[in-house]
Description:
Blueprint: E1 14-21, H1 27-47, E2 54-59, H2 61-67, E3 81-82, E4 86-87, E5 94-100, H3 103-114, E6 122-130, H4 151-158, E7 171-180, H5 182-185, H6 190-197, H7 217-221, E8 234-235, E9 238-241, E10 247-255, H8 258-269, E11 284-286, E12 290-294, H9 297-303
Amino acid sequence: xxxxxxxxxxxxxxxxxxxxxxxxxxxxxxxxxxxxxxxxxxxxxxxxxxxxxxxxxxxxxxxxxxxxxxxxxxxxxxxxxxxxxxxxxxxxxxxxxxxxxxxxxxxxxxxxxxxxxxxxxxxxxxxxxxxxxxxxxxxxxxxxxxxxxxxxxxxxxxxxxxxxxxxxxxxxxxxxxxxxxxxxxxxxxxxxxxxxxxxxxxxxxxxxxxxxxxxxxxxxxxxxxxxxxxxxxxxxxxxxxxxxxxxxxxxxxxxxxxxxxxxxxxxxxxxxxxxxxxxxxxxxxxxxxxxxxxxxxxxxxxxxxxx
Length: 307
């Protein structure tokens, strides 16, 4: 079994994230549309071998139940949080993650998917994202420093193991968009920003424990097991925005265990029981959120078989 192509490699420079509900599109029509999408992708890979074209398609719990009779253990809807800050949930049927070294390729694949079905789906988001400078968030801090870098480590973090049977090499996906208040953020001096994040801004070195505040972002978003071992997730998040318009981050993470995301969110939004929330939430706002499942390539092909 093989994981879908976008999951394990390091992120490309450009990505497009499509989140939607089927509305009037039938499941059979969705299958045909996705098969055509993959045909277009494979043709573009042949024509543009240096474009680093990669994709994944993931399904929300409600749609998954209609596509396949079994559920991967632990798959569920994301629950909203009302803590120090509100974390909304916007359930969705489908998440398509398109990545490439070229933004025009991302556009061409999006255009291909929507061809002929624009009026039959409810598009919750189509987000054009990009690598910013040397892999930084728009706050100016390097994003994803905690990510595992080597393929085996990335697979161990993101993919369901052999004990998952037919779901081996599948991955759960968490997607959530954040809008940044950069005007407010930029009023902070660099040392104050570093205390919000918990890392130095230039080199991305973690602050010492005796200096790093309890409510620093990495103190809340990095979670550990009972033995103090970090429970990693595989982030593919990228910034988005216009010069004068809305600016933010499309947060997306692949994981073999959704309880890791649950724990991270409870700690961030202030409902984990210790009365502390992530101070970064004073400057960024979550506007949606959902869980999905990205099956391995073999199972995806089986699901999309129209014969």
